[in-house]
Amino acid sequence: MWADTVLIVFISVCTALLGEGLTWLMVYRTEKYQKLKAEVEKQSKKLEKRKEAHGDSLDKQQKKKIEREEERLKNNNRDLSLVKMKSMFAIGFAFTALLSMFNSIFDGRVVARLPFTPISWIQGLSHRNLPGDDYMECSFIFLYILCTMSIRQNIQKLLGFAPSRTASKQSGSIFGPPPQQFK
Amino acid sequence: MSRTKSDKNGNTAKTELSVWTRAITANSEWPDKEEFLDVIYWSRQAIGIIVGIGWGLIPLKGFIGLLLFFLVNAGVMYVYFSNFQQVDEEEYGGPWELTKEGFVTSFAGFLICAGNLDNNIFRSSLRLIPI
């Protein structure tokens, strides 16, 4: 079990590096992406500074200006996502194939032991294709997802490919809309 | 990472401390918010791994283990940014923004370490800890 775990951690490090390498080849190094990224960051910082400087005391003209900038930022963010999308699809397909290959290799094998019993709707994933009723036993797919969550994001951050906080803050996230919307 | 900067007259050399030094020095100044958020992010990753290893070796499992992880992780970082560094939390969007910085990644790291160490490294390989 220990060897399997180490192997899976190693696999996820390799796939994260491979994924980032491929994305660099197809997206990050292109002039279009770099230009758009710089533009988005510049605009996000400018917008944040403007919002901070004026706070709540905004007259109509300033509100309009900020709205216009937000709109421009939104468009640039959309363009940036479009540039990324094509390669993401290609990489996604490649990794789905890889994942199903590893899945069949580790099928039915307990690769780790979780420090807790997962809640029922996660058990389907964490105990996938495993014999027995010990739900603390972990399947390949669950450990791989955990590794990807932890390792991939850290690798992205280390390599400097993670999206900037200011840009993601201005464009909003899955947890909520962008703060201080002037509507 | 360490950068040195001289003032305009060139009489005295003012040393700008590296991120590492500022991170371990109380009440440091953080002109670049991103730098401080990076410190919070990486500290949280380190805490996730250290606590994961600790909980895996004790072993501390179940709901108590998870709850203690959340408390230790949030508590240590809260003490760090509010008492040790004494930053203005509102500048960063409030204590919640600082608390959630890197939390999910840290939790994943914790689970990997805690789960893997509970795989009986010592028990089955070295036979040091009695079952």
How much helix is in the residues of chain B? 55-70%
**Topology order of chain B in helix (H) and strand (E) letters:** EEHHHHHH
- As laid out across the biggest beta sheet of chain B, the strand order is 1-2
N/C terminus separation of chain B: 47 Å
State the largest interface: A-B, 26 and 31 residues
Number of helices of chain A: 6
Which structural class do you get from the secondary structure elements of chain A? mainly alpha
Pfam families (chain B): EMC6
Subcellular location (chain B): Endoplasmic reticulum membrane
Keywords (chain B): Endoplasmic reticulum, Membrane, Transmembrane, Transmembrane helix
Membrane topology (chain B): Multi-pass membrane protein
Characterization of this structure:
The complex is a heterodimer of chains A (183) and B (131). Chain A is mainly alpha-helical and 183 residues long. Chain A has one domain (1-170). In chain A, 72% of the residues lie in helices and 2% in strands. Chain A has 6 helices and 2 strands. Chain A has helices at residues 2-28, 31-54, 60-105, 120-126, 140-159, 165-171, and strands at 112-113, 137-138. In chain A, strands 1-2 form a two-stranded antiparallel sheet. The longest helix of chain A is centred in the middle third of the chain and has 46 residues, at 60-105. The N and C termini of chain A lie far apart (56 Å). In chain A, 22% of the residues are buried. Chain B has 131 residues and is mainly alpha-helical. Chain B is built from 6 helices and 2 strands; from the N terminus they run ββαααααα. Chain B has a two-stranded antiparallel sheet with strand order 1-2. Chain B is elongated. Mean pLDDT of chain B is 79; it is low at 1-14 and 126-131. Chains A and B meet through helix 1, strand 1, helix 5 and helix 6 of A and helix 2, helix 3, helix 5 and helix 6 of B. Chain B: It is a multi-pass membrane protein. Chain B: This is Respirasome Complex Assembly Factor 1 isoform X1. Chain B: Keywords: Endoplasmic reticulum, Membrane, Transmembrane, Transmembrane helix. Chain B: Belongs to the EMC6 family. Chain B: Its main location: endoplasmic reticulum.
